[in-house]
Amino acid sequence: MKKIYLTTPLYYVNDKPHIGHAYTTILADVISRYQKLSGKNVYFLTGTDEHGQKVQEAALKLNTTPKDHVDKFHKNYLELWSRLNIDFDKFIRTTDENHVNKVKKVLQTLWEKGEIYQAEYEGLYSVSEERFITEKEYEEGEYREVKKLKEKNYFFKMSKYQEQLINHINDNSDFIIPESRKNEILGFLKKPLDDLCISRPKSRLEWGIEIPFDNDYVTYVWFDALLNYITGIKWDRDNDFFKSWWPADYHLMGKDIITTHAVYWMTMLMANNLPLPKHIIAHGWWLIDKTKMSKSIGNVINPIELIEHYGEDSLRYFLMREMTLGQDASFSFELFKRRYNDDLANDLGNLLNRITILIRKFCNNHVPDIKNHDKIDEDLIDKIKILPNKSLKNIDNLKINMAIEEIMSVVRYINKYLELKEPWKILKTNNTDQSGLNTLSIACEAIALSAKLLFPVMPSKCDEIFKILNIPSESRYNLKFGQISGNHIQKHNVLFPRIEDND
């Protein structure tokens, strides 16, 4: 069985989770579930980044220790992932003892190999980003709390691997996705690559992983956090397990951290003689009125509030349906309500309600057998039979929104099919008419298969559909047409109640 290893970035524990964090993690979960639907074995890693200056300062303001602070606040992410039905395999924290020990081992190994050196550095330091920045970056005005700093630190010889990295990117066209982000990184690498400062003196920062060869310093937060992708799959602990999953198939992240992953992390792997991941995938930002969400301007959307009002599957569906991977997308409550009412309440929910009512009324609550279908029946059957391959091909190409649209177009076609066939008229006159019974059965089979394909996006609601149609757990990964004849249909409430204007 083919194995797939995918990751989200580690989310900084000092921030409250927002729509951007939710999107990345839902995306990973959806890809993971689709890969399982395709018969693959998946390992899905997520977690929290818990070191650094901002954590230390936040703890000080709250009159607590950094460790107590992160122990409390990392639960915000665990709670949200639970509310969003995220089915991860490993939640790693950078304060985990194993992670700390392995970061120290990497540092010690690179030091002994001559890949790390000490030097005095003078330059501009961004407190908010916890790193040194260039004059150009400062002039562009994207960084806050910038000050001049002169101090001794330890540096990783990142520049040594510049040409090797450029060659790898050029030789592997789908290594960085989308193309625009690949070009961005290649543009960045046209300029001489600086070595990476990987330490902070304890005189200004104590909350971090101590440098093993100099206890006056702690590790730069990014050097620490990026190593989670290997420490989380038992690197240097269980070699067989590690090799069975590494290299990662998909590193998923927002476009704002593409450089740290495509440059810092890749050169770190090269220095450690480890294979590079197969794909680095950078998605766009969620915008409000064409503006990036930001705590400082107060336009951050709280996903918990959306879940409480509309349910987790509605949010999962909207985020997956609205964003084309690699592009920015806009969020508005009006757009959310419209998508929910049109796609979920009207198309899918109404269809399910219609067909189950007809089966209860004319078929004694049982899905009838299919016998001798006509051309209109065959058109729908053909669409259903090719739907799994079409939608899963889009998933393999990371076109999640297009896969969903393929499925929903079939859902809309089922509604048209019912209107064309009008089984209620036929069966009202003769409740044993095979043409009418065929229509109900084919429509029900089509709903069942559509629900199986939508399950990775809306696991809770699709699970309800499976229960209504009496589809057993063992057949939910069976994507062949013709699986539910004879099934007893359960009574049910409205699956997606409409959102009214005043909601």
Provide the CATH superfamily of one domain.
Isoleucyl-tRNA Synthetase, Domain 1
Query: For the terminal residues, how far apart are their CA atoms?
Result: 47 Å
CATH architecture of one domain: Orthogonal Bundle
**Do you know the CATH topology of one domain?**
Isoleucyl-tRNA Synthetase, Domain 1
Classify the secondary structure makeup into a structural class. Answer: alpha/beta
CATH C-level label of one domain: Mainly Alpha
Round the mean pLDDT to the nearest integer and report it: 93
Number of strands: 15
Identify low-pLDDT runs. none
Tally of helical segments:
20
Shape: elongated
Rounded to the nearest angstrom, the radius of gyration is 26 Å
Strand order of the largest sheet: 3-2-1-11-12-7
SSE diagram, text form:
Blueprint: E1 3-12, H1 19-37, E2 41-49, H2 53-61, H3 66-73, H4 75-83, E3 90-93, H5 97-112, E4 116-126, E5 131-133, H6 135-139, E6 146-156, H7 162-171, E7 176-177, H8 179-188, E8 196-197, E9 199-201, E10 217-219, H9 221-226, H10 228-231, H11 239-245, E11 250-254, H12 258-271, E12 280-283, E13 286-288, E14 291-292, H13 303-310, H14 312-322, E15 329-330, H15 333-362, H16 375-396, H17 400-421, H18 423-429, H19 434-454, H20 459-468
Parallel strand pairs: 1-2, 1-11, 2-3, 7-12, 11-12, 13-15
Antiparallel strand pairs: 4-5, 4-6, 6-8, 9-10, 13-14
Helix pairs in contact: 2-3, 13-14, 14-15, 15-17, 15-19, 16-17, 16-19, 17-19, 18-19, 19-20
What would you say this structure looks like, in words?
By secondary structure, this protein is α/β, with parallel strands linked by helices. It has a domain of 144 residues: Isoleucyl-tRNA Synthetase, Domain 1 (Orthogonal Bundle), CATH 1.10.730.10. The protein is 49% helix and 15% strand. The chain contains 20 helices and 15 strands. The strands form four sheets. A six-stranded parallel sheet has the order 3-2-1-11-12-7, sandwiched between helices. The chain has a four-stranded antiparallel sheet with strand order 5-4-6-8. Helix 16 packs antiparallel against helix 17. The chain is elongated. The relative contact order is 0.11.
